[in-house]
Design goal:
Strand content: 25-35%
Strand order of the largest sheet: 1-2-4-3-7-8-6-5
Radius of gyration: 17 Å
Number of helices: 6
Structural class: alpha+beta
Helix content: 25-40%
Length: 207
């Protein structure tokens, strides 16, 4: 009986993918919702040289979370079974074994992204709270740079902000990232007087 209870409580992480024409659909299922899911996933995919083009979080009635990611390799490579297994191993260490993202990136000689400054003078950031929505909208336009999504998700994670969905559109070397956000503490929109200035300052520190 004790063994059965232990097995029931064991953390769950399922990682699978569906190849597409130019992209791959990555499915990640967790046994519970957690702040910073996209933050951890972006760090792992950045390490393995993959971009996230879209992300949607879905929470089932039993508490399990399934996140869907449309991803693309930097060099046009394919998602192999070996790589998928390594991604799962890396994610498990970040979600359930206490390894921090900073530790993970340093171990893989990718720590430069933790302090990198992009220096895009034409970058624009818009934050607003639509009346008809329960979420804050954030639009960011800037030059397309590998790893930029990781830096954005890191900022949101440290400010206690949940990402509900994310989409990226690229055109002529520029990228438009759109996010639906809410505070992790209350599940509400971001406070315009308090959180908007804090988030803007955090992002502008490396843009």
């Amino acid at each position: 009986m004790a063994q059965t209870v232990q097995e029931i409580k064991k953390p769950i992480l399922h990682v699978s993918c569906v190849p597409r024409k130019d992209t791959t659909l990555l499915k990640i299922s967790l046994s519970q919702d957690d702040l910073g899911i996209l933050y951890r996933v972006t760090s792992v995919l950045y390490n393995h040289r993959w971009d996230i083009l879209e992300a949607v979080a879905e929470t089932a009635s039993d508490g399990h979370v399934q996140d869907l990611f449309v991803i693309r390799s930097w060099d046009g490579g394919e998602m192999t079974e070996e790589l998928l297994s390594q991604i799962r191993t890396d994610l498990y260490s970040l979600f359930y074994e206490g390894k921090t993202v900073a530790m993970y990136l340093r171990e893989n000689a990718k720590e430069e992204v933790l302090v990198r400054k992009i220096g895009d003078s034409e970058a624009t950031l818009k934050l607003y709270n639509p009346i008809s929505s329960d979420f804050t909208v954030m639009d960011l336009r800037m030059k397309d740079t590998p790893g930029i999504l990781f830096q954005i998700t890191e900022s949101l994670y440290h400010l206690g902000i949940d990402i509900i969905s994310f989409t990226a559109n690229s055109f002529d070397g520029k990228i438009r990232d759109s996010f639906l956000l809410r505070t992790s503490l209350t599940g509400e929109k971001l406070d315009e007087k308090l959180m908007f200035p804090m988030l803007r300052a955090k992002l502008e520190s490396f843009l």
